[in-house]
Amino acid sequence: MLASHPDIYVPTRRKEIFYFDLYYERGLEWYEGFFPQKAEARRYQAMGEITATYIYRPYAPERIVLVPSITKLILMVRNPVDRAYSHYGLLVKNGEYAGSFEVFLTDQPWVIQQGFYSRYLENFYQYFKKDQILVLVYELATTKVPETKQTLARFLGVATERFPLNAGTKRVNRSFIPRVPIVYALTRKVAWHYLRHKWNLDGVVNWGKRLGIEHLFGDSGSFPPIRKETRQYLCALYDDEIENLETLLDVSLDCWRE
To answer: Please, are residues 148 and 160 in contact by the beta-carbon 8 Å criterion?
Structure first.
């Protein structure tokens, strides 16, 4: 949705830059290389990038606040139960995990901890004012697209009507189970670790994605739903957190209780 607006710039070369956590030592000049130079930058009213891991890094906000041009942040929170299962699905798809979701929660307890959003937000609120951080609820943002466009436009100071009508209505990433997970995982490792992050050959990776190379190894379907008893266990675990987040953000999260 952000990329579709003519007055908003998000990097086309690389979506997640990971500068403020993985590549901070490369320096601000390296980071600025993903954005337009001053002459071209004047065309845009807002510029930014999307890296989901920043919210979990305790040192990220103090690094981000040191860049004067970064004055607004956007966070999208999802039902923590579904977020945990989605993370599990991603690791299975990428060949990084092969067990059940229930065993995964025991083996990787940090995945559960990442659903306690309020503690991470509180860390950011030490460096940014609340009106500098727009928090969107995934389930509402994706089902009430016109309202989401209006909210984003107000926050970023752009015109709502310049969003294309179909922006935000298409599903971009679908979780699937590759038929040959070992080969898929190896291909992805080469693409992301060497081509993109070590050698900066983003164009090669993007070209492969456009061709749909990841699906050449087969698609054996989507992941089954979470087991009922597992969902009940996680819902009880996050019950207090949901209430804390509602108080912190002054919003209703009843959509997570349904």
So the answer is: no
Q: Return the number of other C-beta atoms located less than 10 Å from residue 81's C-beta.
A: 20
CA–CA separation, 213 vs 167, rounded Å? 25
Confidence grade of residue 82 (pLDDT, cut at 50, 70, 90): very high
Contacts of 237 (CB under 8 A, 6+ apart): 112
**Cα–Cα distance measured from residue 68 to residue 2, given in angstroms and rounded to the nearest whole number:** 22
The CATH class of 8-175+222-256 is alpha beta
Chain position carrying tokens 């990329």 = 3
The residue behind tokens 């953000």 is 249
In three-state secondary structure terms, 119 is helix
C-alpha pair distances (Å), 246 with each of 118, 250, 254: 9, 5, 9
Residue 191's CB is within 10 A of a number of other CB atoms, namely 19
Q: Please state the pTM of the whole predicted model.
A: 0.84
Which residue type occupies 164? P
- Asked whether 84 and 114 are in contact (CB, 8 A), the reply is yes
Q: With beta carbons less than 8 A apart as the criterion, state whether 45 and 7 touch.
A: yes
- For the stretch 165-179, pLDDT in tens is 998 887 766 665 666
Tokens read off for 129: 């004012």
| DSSP bridge partners of 75 | 135
